[in-house]
Design goal:
The structure holds 2 protein chains of 2 kinds. By secondary structure, chain A is α/β, with parallel strands linked by helices. In chain A, 44% of the residues lie in helices and 20% in strands. Chain A starts with a strand and ends with a helix. By secondary structure, chain B is an alpha+beta fold. Chain B is rod-shaped. The chains are: A alpha/beta, B alpha+beta. Chains A and B meet through helix 1 of A and helix 5 and helix 6 of B.
Chain lengths: 120, 392
């Protein structure tokens, strides 16, 4: 069982991802904003983090910047989740240190495949 | 006496004022034009220093010029000097041009001056200059206005793009969970659904995906209109993309019992924006499926023609009247009478497809007759490198 941290300011979004991951047999932790995501990550040391890019306050980019500064998080797989479909967003996310990128609305198959790829 | 009279006639026939001054600068000869020009009678001027005809502030300098001229006498032609000013008896001033010719005789040194009043020409020049200045001014104002309009347009365009980006985000966020949860329910991992519940869940899922397509279409056309659609060309296996596109519409075709076939002599590598080419293929295939009555035949053909890939999607559907062959590629156009109630979609699909093809340096066209089916074809340069050559 792997520990996965899901950060999204929308509770429905968190529940959707949590359900999919739990169905796959993972242990899910939640954070509803960026600050909480950083604190929770440092506390539980997850195997994978799924970060919504757009969160009020500290956004996904802010979270990854803080986490990547921690030596213990330099290699943790982190998936960016975003509802934006603008060109260049994926490049920007990868340059910021994300290891995966999924756009909302997610297709369950795509989410499962990305999660398994990064946890393998 | 005859000579004297001839000389006088010659003098008076000249259109310019003529004067002669002696070595001391005194006027010793003048014609009628000179009298009229300066407003003096001949008697008033004869024997007067020529400075009488020059504004006071220039007297000293003129005397110097005269002395200098006495030392270096030479013919100076009309217009070769500076712009000069003369003064009339009534004190009014006017611009003149003067030509000078020295002569030396038994009577001593003489200078003959021919004087032309250039007021009219000066006025005309000034008027022309003024018109030019006004024109330049107006041009500058118009330019400034245009620059401002341009800035406003750029700002409006930027606001539009920002609005679209945020709108797209806002619309996708709730769709994300509607699509996700309906798919999740349909998987029945959370428990069984009866047949009706299953169908309802599938309706929600299918229609929310459709809503997503509409949002994507509106976003695409807006990006195209704002010139913000960027292509990401890459080399890819065209045959594999055709197979992938056909696979993604196969269930739609099967739902209407269509025969879906491909005949391809497709090259292995094409350089283009893979996702956009798939969008083009899927759009043409879904249109063909949508506008063909049940049990039709849809055939995709791809081949190489010179440096282009030519793709045709042929159907046995309702067809399009010739007068609509061009307007069908316009925004919001939907073939009215012939669609027989098939009217879902934004009417943006073909407009987007056309722009995507054109942005790749290609072209799209249709051959069709009502009730005879349609063939939509497009051609793309094999690679962006070759596209550059084509464009050059």
């Amino acid at each position: 069982m792997k520990k996965v941290l899901v950060a999204d300011d929308k509770d429905t979004g968190r529940e959707l991802v949590r359900t999919v991951l739990e169905n796959s047999g993972h242990q899910v932790f939640e954070a509803s904003d960026g600050e909480q995501a950083v604190a929770e990550a440092l506390r539980i040391h997850p195997d994978l983090i799924i970060l919504d890019i757009h969160m009020p306050g500290l956004d996904g980019f802010g979270v990854i910047e803080k986490l990547r500064r921690e030596p213990s998080f330099s290699h943790t797989p982190i998936i960016a989740l975003t509802a934006s479909a603008m060109m260049g967003d994926r490049e920007r996310a990868m340059a910021a240190g994300f290891t995966g990128y999924i756009t909302k609305p997610i297709r369950l198959g795509a989410l499962r495949a990305e999660v398994e790829r990064l946890l393998a | 006496m005859l000579l004297e009279r001839r000389f006088r006639e010659l003098l008076e026939a000249a259109p310019d004022a003529i004067m002669q001054v002696d070595a001391e600068g005194r006027i010793i000869l003048l014609n009628r034009v000179a009298e009229d020009m300066f407003g003096y009678s001949r008697d008033e001027l004869l024997g007067q220093p020529v400075e009488a005809l020059i504004p006071h502030e220039l007297h000293a300098r003129h005397a110097e010029h005269r002395a200098h001229y006495r030392q270096n006498p030479m013919t100076r032609t009309m217009g070769s000097g500076l712009a000069l000013e003369a003064i009339r008896k009534d004190g009014s001033r006017f611009p003149v041009e003067i030509s000078l010719s020295p002569s030396e005789s038994v009577e001593g040194f003489r200078v003959t001056a021919i004087i032309r009043d250039t007021t009219e020409r000066r006025t005309a020049e000034e008027r022309l200059h003024k018109v030019q200045e006004e024109y330049t001014q107006r041009l500058a104002e118009t330019n400034a206005e245009l620059a401002m309009t341009n800035r406003e347009l750029e700002r409006a365009n930027r606001l539009k793009s920002e609005f679209l980006a945020s709108m797209s985000h806002e619309l996708r966020t709730p769709l994300h969970t509607i699509i996700g949860f309906s798919e999740l329910l349909g998987e029945k991992l959370e428990g069984p659904l009866n047949e009706k519940q299953m169908r309802f869940v599938q309706h929600i899922h299918k229609d929310s995906l459709h809503l997503l397509e509409l949002i994507n279409d509106v976003l695409d056309i807006s990006k195209i209109e704002a010139d913000r659609l960027e292509l990401r060309p890459e080399a890819f296996d065209f045959a594999a993309l055709v197979a992938e596109s056909v696979a993604s519409v196969r269930s739609l075709a099967e739902a209407k019992s269509h025969i879906l076939e491909t005949a391809s002599d497709v090259p292995t590598a094409v350089e283009a924006d893979r996702l956009r080419i798939k969008q083009i293929l899927v759009n043409l295939l879904s249109n063909a499926i949508k506008f063909t009555p049940e049990g039709g035949r849809i055939r995709l053909e791809a081949r190489v023609q010179e440096s282009f890939v030519v793709v045709s999607v042929c159907d046995t559907g309702v067809g399009i009247p010739p007068e609509e062959h061009e307007s069908i590629f316009e925004k919001f156009h939907q073939v009215g009478a012939t669609t027989k109630g098939v009217r879902e979609g934004t009417g943006l699909g073909l407009a987007i497809t056309k722009r995507l093809v054109e942005q790749h340096g290609g072209g799209i066209w249709v051959q069709s007759e009502p009730e005879q089916g349609s063939t939509f074809s497009f051609k793309l340069p094999m690679s962006s490198a070759e596209r550059k050559t084509q464009g050059a």
